[in-house]
Here is the input.
Amino acid sequence: MSSPYLHINGIRKTFGEVVATDHVELEIAEGEFMTFLGPSGSGKSTTLYILAGFQDPTAGDIRLRGRSILQTPSHKRNIGMVFQRYTLFPHLSVGENVAFPLRVRRAPQAEIAAKVRRALSLVRLDGFEDRMPAHMSGGQQQRVALARALVYDPPVLLMDEPLSALDKKLREEIQHEIRRIHQQTGVTILYVTHDQEEALRLSDRIAVFNTGKIEQVGTGPELYASPATHFVADFIGNSAFLAGDLVAIGAGRASLRFADGTVLADIPMHGTGLAGGKAELMLRPERIELTAQPGLSGASLPVTVEDVTFLGNSSTVSARTGWGEVLSVRMNFGHPMMGQVRQGDALHVRWQPQHAHVFAKA
Amino acid sequence: MLLDFDKLGAWKWILSAVCALMALFLLLPILFIVALSFGDSRWLIFPPQNWTLKWYGELFADPRWLAAAWTSARIALIVMVLSVVLGLLASLALTRGTFRGRAVLRAFFLTPMVLPVVIIAVALYAAFLRLGLNGTLAGFVIAHLIVALPFSIITISGALETFDPSIEDAAILCGASPWEARFRVTLPAISHGLFSAAIFSFLISWDEVVLAIFMASPTLQTLPVKVWTTLRQDLTPVIAAASTLLVALTILLMIVAALIRKGKSR
Here is the structure.
C-alpha cells in the first residue's frame, strides 16, 4: 500500500501543562478538501500552525508524500496559507502582493507576469493589479490573499477561518468561490472553521475536533446521519438530548428508561455502556413529528407545548416531556398543524426508531 | 455628537477668538524674529523701517556661524540615524517581546521625556568629565540621543502596534526567510513611523540648546549654542537671521512629517 499524500501522524502539542492537541491522527488524500471543525481551543488551529511550521509539535510527525516536513523551516515548506485576518502587504499593490512569492523565489519576470495574471483571474479579480489593498473590501482582500497563496502551486493550501471577518452574505459568496477554485485547481485544502454550515458546504471530509482530539472523521452526511459521539451529534445539527437509564443492551441496540418510567426499546447505540448506566437519547429536530395522537408505529412520547417560534420557512416548537426535559421540533411551512399549535397544548412527538441514537454517558 | 461646533451659538465666536489668539501667541515671536532679520536697524528696532538682506550676508560670510551650522547638522544626522536604528530595535522588543518587565522597561525608556533636561545635562557633564567626552562630537550625539530616543520609540512602537504580525507570517509562508520578511514587508509597512521618528529625532537634536551648552567647547558648538553665546555678547540682527533659518528648516521638516502622516492615513 502506498503512503498517504499527507499524513498527520500522532501530533501532540503541549504548552506547559496545557495539552493543545493530543495524538491527532489523520490521512489526507491528494486533492481532498478536508475541514477541521470544532469550537475555539479544540486544537484545530494548533494543528494547522504545526503544518505551517509556526509551532513545533511536542511529539508526532507530519509527512507529505511520505517525507517528514517537520525539519523544514516554514519558508521552505512551499505551503500556501490564507489567514483569518487580512494579511496583504499594505505597501504593495495587489499585483505585487500576488507576485511576492514568485519574487522571493527569483522567478523570471515574464513567468511572474503570466502567473500573477492567471492567479488573479482564478479569483475573478482580473485587472486589479494596480489597486492598493487599503482600497479593497474585506472579501476582495481575502480573494487576493487566496491568489497569493495559490500562485506558486503549493502542494497543500491551509485556510485558517478565512471568512470569519466577513458578513454572512459575503461569506456564502466566497464559499462558492472557494469550492469552484478547489474544483478548478485540484489543490489539497486543509480548512479550519468553527462554523458547521461552512464545513458542510465546502468539505469532502470533516474532522471534528474537541479538546485537542479528533472525535470523528467523515463526510458531512456521514457525520450527520451517524455521529460517533455525543459531541459530534451536538456540534453538527441542532439535536435534542433526553437523559435516561440503560436497561438492556445488545447488538448495537439499547433500551432506555426515562425519569417517568417510559421505556423505549431497540434504539441504535453508539459507544459502549453497561445496563444500569446513564445514557442519552439524541433526536434530530426534523426527524420528530408532532401529532395529536400517539403513533401506532414508531416511538412516541407525550409532551406539552412550551413555546412556538416562527422562523419563516419553518417553525420551531419547544415541547416539554412528562419528566420536564425540553426538546425542539421543526415544523416546515405548510405543515397541516402549523398555526394550530398553541402554548400549553398536550400533544405527542413521534419518530422512527432508527432515527434516534443512544449515547452512553461516561 | 455632544459638542457639535455648529450648535454652540455664541460660544462658537468666543471659541474661535480664543483659538485665533492662541495661534497668534504661538506664532508672533517667530514672525517678530523673521521681521527683525530682514530689517535694516542694527538695534533690533520693531517694526523695521527699511528692509535688507545684509544680515544674511554677514551670517554666511562668518566662518564661525557656518562651522556651528555644520556641527549642528552633523550631530543631528548621526542622532537621527542612531535614534531610528536603536528605536526600531527597542520597539521590536517592546511590542513583540513576551518577557517579564516589559511595561517597566517601556516606562524606563520614556523617562528622559519627563526628566528636566538640566538634570540630564548636569549628570552627563559630570560623567563625561571622567570619560573625556565633553566638547566632542560623540558627547553631543550621546546627549541628544538620550532625549531623542523616547520620541523614536513612541512613534515606531505606534507603527508596529498597528502592523499585524500575521502579515509577517504570511510573507514567511510565501517563501521569504524571516529576515527577508522583515526587510521586504515589515520595514516598508512601518516606513511612515520610521520617517516620522527620523524627522523628530533630527529636529530634537537640531533645536536642542540646554544639553548642547553643557557639551559645547569654544571650538565645537552647535547653531543654537552659537545663537545663545552671541546673544550674550551683543544684540546683532545676525542672530535673528540665524534664528530665522533655524526655524525655517524646522517648519519645513514639520511639514514633511505632517505630509507623511497624511499620506499614511489616506
In short: Helices of chain A lie at 44-52, 94-104, 109-122, 138-150, 168-185, 196-202, 220-225, 230-235. Residues 168-185 of chain A form the longest helix (18 residues). The first strand of chain A starts at residue 6 and ends at 15.
